[in-house]
TrEMBL record:
UniProt xrefs under Pfam families: DUF4272
Protein name: DUF4272 domain-containing protein
Provenance organism: Bremerella volcania
Cited InterPro entries: DUF4272 (IPR025368)
Length: 340
């Protein structure tokens, strides 16, 4: 049988069963990204299919694919293939046009997009355990996360930004937040003064940030948006080990403490010596804020106060930083999305 396996594992295990490998590629092949976009279009029938929970999970899986293998496997060895595919965190595409889980249960039927009741989208063990642990912690706080939300990316899938890139981005956020705060207070700090104090920031400003810093009189919404970046900065400082923990997102960060941490450091040394926390700790916060965001948005849609004093603005900004850290959808800073 010809099988196309789509693995989210960065380094899939070796194929220790009889097979004929037709081809394999990873994200270093620029054609794979285009192929995966086409695959998403296929399962969604060009946007004509109504999104279901299973389709959403398959959609997100395809977005995270890092390796694509085509191989011939005899029927006698399909059980061994299935064991490999679960470990590689792979879904499979079969010659009949169906998208299946490693056991061959249909996730997306070519006829109507339906799925078998027993079909399961694969997730890494650590991602499943993380979702369970976070959900239990939230229930202990009398919060009710939506169980249909998928786990977030696992440790063997994630490709974190480099520590030096994170440190540079933190300094850039400091620069734009300082300007926004000064403009909002009616005592604007000249951009050249900020450039002199934080020259490293101006080497990595995003296009939107560059426009903000270049504008003589930024509009009010732009000022507000960039003042919120203290919350993103706080997350990156935590990821770099500058702070021991992220407090529960029911209030804004301690702005003087956050700003002081950057301004009192030798920024060149900060970049050169930057180190990230373990991926597991970062992913714990990614999962937590994903579920908290859903809870806060649900309350907003229902017109009720967010439970436990959740501040949806704080959560939103934290997720921007966290999703950028884990390269969610491979988005650049200005394009980071935070869906729930």
């Amino acid at each position: 049988m010809l099988i196309n396996a789509y693995c989210t594992h960065r380094n899939p295990p070796s194929l220790e069963f009889p097979h004929e490998l037709i081809g394999s590629r990873d994200l270093s092949d620029p054609e794979l990204a285009e192929h995966l976009n086409g695959f998403i279009g296929f399962i969604m029938q060009g946007g004509e299919r109504e999104m279901t929970q299973t389709l959403y999970h398959v959609y997100r899986h395809i977005e995270r694919v890092q390796n694509h293998l085509s191989l011939e496997v005899e029927d006698d060895h399909l059980d061994a293939f299935a064991a490999w595919a679960w470990e590689a965190n792979a879904i499979v595409f079969l010659p009949d046009g169906s998208v299946c889980d490693p056991n061959g249960n249909v996730l997306v039927s070519p006829e109507d997009g339906g799925s078998d009741p027993e079909a399961q989208v694969p997730y890494p063990d650590d991602a499943l355990k993380r979702k369970q642990a976070v959900s239990q912690d939230l229930h202990a706080l009398k919060l009710q996360p939506y169980e249909g939300l998928p786990p977030v990316i696992g440790e063997n899938e994630v490709d974190l930004r480099s520590a030096k890139e994170v440190a540079r981005r933190a300094i850039a956020l400091m620069a734009v937040a300082i300007r926004a705060e000064s403009l909002g207070s009616g005592q604007p700090i000249p951009v050249e003064e900020i450039r002199e104090r934080l020259p490293q920031a101006f080497e990595v400003l995003s296009p939107v940030e560059q426009d903000f810093m270049n504008a003589d009189s930024p509009d009010q919404q732009s000022i507000i948006n960039h003042a919120w970046r203290y919350e993103c900065l706080y997350v990156l400082q935590w990821a770099l080990g500058h702070f021991d923990e992220l407090h529960f997102p029911s209030a804004i960060c301690d702005v003087p403490e956050v700003a002081g941490d950057i301004l009192q450091r030798d920024r060149d040394e900060m970049i050169a010596e930057a180190q990230l926390r373990p991926a597991s700790e970062i992913l714990d916060e990614v999962d937590l804020h994903f579920r908290l965001h859903w809870i806060a948005r649900q309350a907003s849609q229902e017109g009720t106060p967010p439970p436990a004093g959740l501040d949806i603005g704080v959560i939103q900004e934290r997720r921007v930083a966290l999703n950028w850290l884990i390269r969610f959808e491979n988005a650049d800073w200005d394009d980071v999305d935070c869906p729930t």
